[in-house]
Amino acid sequence: MSESDSNSNISTGHCNKCIEMSTWSFLGDFYRRVENADQLAARLEEDLRQCSVSAHHASLIITRYEQVLADYQARIEQERLEHGVTQKALEFEQHNHRDTARLFDLTYEAVSESCELVDGLRAQVAELEGGSELVTTVPKTADLLLELQLSRAEEYNIIPMPLQQTSRPINGPSRPPEVNSLDHAIACQNGSTSVLDFSSRRLQLLKSEPKLNLLTRVEQLTKETGYLRQEIKFYRQCFADSQHLRESTFDVYQQLFLASVSSPSPELLQKLVVQLHNALEKSMKMEVKAEREWKAFWGLKCSLDELRGGQAI
């Protein structure tokens, strides 16, 4: 190609390839490229939309997992707090159980001593009603009355009768309490008393039972504490009754002791016998009332004699 031809191509703005291609071929190739670019752009937009949807779903899932994790952490913290409270409650109940067992031992000893005293008083009342001689059993609290009797005996030149003091073995052999009729009635009602729960057979059965979880054990101990408190309430009432009877008996005895210096009149003896009889009758009524309340706690029916205020079983 000569220099003149090159200059003519540059001036017209067409290359040799464009000159060789037809106009329709050039337009067809151009439209194909535009269509391919549009399809590629559409695919990219679809991929972008799917990625955006997936990212949104992933964000929702992450938010949900974070909320679940926060709920589990709050639940674990609540469980930890409840465990601490339950542990403190269990320790408190164990401390109360030890105090209750100690108080029950003291109450049982006092009730046993009071029962022996009541039996002795009934024997003395029977002797007084039969016209026998006065029983001169002096309690430990009558030292001042003993000095008064000795001083009056010196004035009247009377030889005082020998006084005997009731003694009780201090460190005697301890034996477990026996199951009485009231314990048996409560046991037939599927109830619970300390004599039944602390028996060797019951303790052996507890050793073979499966170990309970903490919440069930706390609930069981709380229920047993309620039963034991009701039983202690009964023995407290009996103990207060025995203390009142003891005071009445000491009062009667002091009057008899003072009257023994001179010859007591039959009217005074009759008055003291009636006073002691009324104290015993009141004591038995209070005992029956306490037993009736304990039976009502377990849903036991009382007999007709108990409703009338008769003797306790």
Q: What attributes does this structure have?
A:
313 residues, mainly alpha, 2 domains, two-stranded parallel ribbon, disordered C terminus
Structure overview:
This protein has 2 domains: 17-77; 86-167 and 178-307, no CATH class. It is mainly α and 313 residues long. It contains 10 helices and 2 strands. Strands 1-2 form a two-stranded parallel sheet. Helix 3 runs parallel beside helix 8, helix 3 (23-129) packs antiparallel against helix 9 (266-297) and helix 8 (214-259) packs antiparallel against helix 9 (266-297).
Topology of this protein?
Layout: H1 3-12, H2 16-20, H3 23-129, E1 137-138, H4 143-156, E2 164-165, H5 181-188, H6 194-197, H7 200-208, H8 214-259, H9 266-297, H10 304-307
Parallel strand pairs: 1-2
Helix pairs in contact: 3-8, 3-9, 8-9
